Amino acid sequence: MSRKKEFGDFQTPESLAKKVVPLVNELFGQPDVVIEPTAGLGNFLKASSDFWGESLEYEGYEINQSYVELARANLSDNGIQFFQTDFFSTDWNRVLSRRQEDRVLVIGNPPWVTNSDLGFLGSRNLPEKSNDRGLNGIDAKTGKSNFDIAESMLIQLVESIPHGGAVAMLCKTMTARKVLHHLWNSCEDLTNSSLFLIDAKSEFDVAVDACLFFVEKGGTTKPMATVYPYLAVDSPVSTFGSMGGRLVSDIKGYRRSEHLEAKRDSNFIWRSGVKHDASKVMEFTRKENSLVNGFDEFVDIEDEYLFPLLKSSDLGNGRTEARKSVLVTQKHPGEDTSAIGQTAPKTWDYLMQHAEVLDHRRSSIYQKRARFSIFGVGPYSFHPWKIAISGLYKVLSFVVVPPCHKKPTMVDDTCYFLPCHTRQEAELIKDLLTSELANDFFHSRIFLDSKRPITIDVLRRLSLFEIAQELGRLDDLNECVRQHSRRSGQQIQMSLFS
Ligand SMILES: C[S@@+](CC[C@H](N)C(=O)[O-])C[C@H]1O[C@@H](n2cnc3c(N)ncnc32)[C@H](O)[C@@H]1O
User: Fold this and answer.
1) Structural domain span for residue 308
2) How many independent structural domains does the chain possess?
3) Which residue's CA is the nearest one to ligand 1's atom 27?
4) Which protein residue's CA is at the shortest distance from atom 15 of ligand 1?
5) Residue 53: CATH number of its domain
6) What's the 484 CA to ligand 1 centre distance in angstroms?
7) What are the tens digits of pLDDT across the range 385-420?
């Protein structure tokens, strides 16, 4: 196990600490007490004492005894005290509480490592209550509970710092956002929330979006933060914030497009594609006109359960001609699969031959389900046309997906789609989704530096009816809805806009 990785141990270059301190001085003025938690070699304390002089109180806290000794040896003359301590067993309320008039600054750089990396490393360098962000079971299962340990450190520090204090720490921009989203609810006196972007590649040789995260305690919390392009109070690049409990990336853009939020678009429900967690068994390419699975085996099965498949890489590259096929064993997740044995015996034999793989799929969602079950299927999967987008790419590229050899094309579970009956319907929806209005709507709500900025939640938020109304295409859309409902044999679920 790499100790460096376990402890997120990337010491801040002195040159960077030297740029941060004057900026903090500009934002906050001179503090009385400077504290560096997870201080490492104490580069921020050194830069602080060089800048503000030795009359202030300086304290560093660090888990690694050898760093503490080195820092003491190098920096004790500057009046800096170092303590060996584990962040997660430190009483930060006590450490940070000083005389009432003292202005406390917490400065530094917490470890950049996620709880799942630590789980993988078998490390216990974690907060005691790792699930304190209120994530439920399914989020935990799908990895939404993955968080940077810096996230819980920053929350604890800001919550513990007394009124009149400030926190200035380097972290991933994603971490800063999550921390602020939490703090805007938990703290009443949070002001001046700001992110100053840094070039983490050149400073730390890591390819992540990172920043200096700055907040002050004082005044009344406003749930918005200003993002600056570099370490200076210069023209901001954006202001993000929390609106109705959700994070939005651009408050002005959000306000401009607020009226486009979906309220009653029950006819257009974004779906995720097919999920099977066994691509080597369930997906096929064609070689010499035969099917070949992911084990490079030639496969002879009936056509009945086979469907053309587009993956994220296809949609991301605008490809609509399926190069793969996928076995779709159910029409809906609860369906009994044993009937395959009668209707398509070769397919059933093939599934049985690979039962070892299918029965041991890791995700617990397959437990207590019919054998060879899949997810992300329903009547909507079998509509002949789709308008789809990849959730893995960071571009809003909507693709009209046609049927292939008279079969509906499936998309995989990294893609999202709206089912359509006709090309005309798909083209109309594509026009709406790619309009400037829709683009503005999405861009003010997504964070392009997130790992997966395009989510089903954000897609579901746009009202196609409102967009159609603004673009003068409401009659076309209403007609599509009527035809769609007729073809689906459904009642029209909503009153059409008039
Ligand atoms: C990203 S480095 C930053 C060090 C220093 N603040 C700087 O900016 O140069 C993170 C530091 O956190 C320390 N650390 C990791 N887990 C810790 C814990 N649970 N308690 C205290 N320090 C910890 C590591 O040993 C490492 O020195």
Assistant:
1) 271-488
2) 2
3) 40
4) 7
5) 3.40.50.150
6) 58
7) 999 999 999 999 999 999 999 999 999 999 999 999
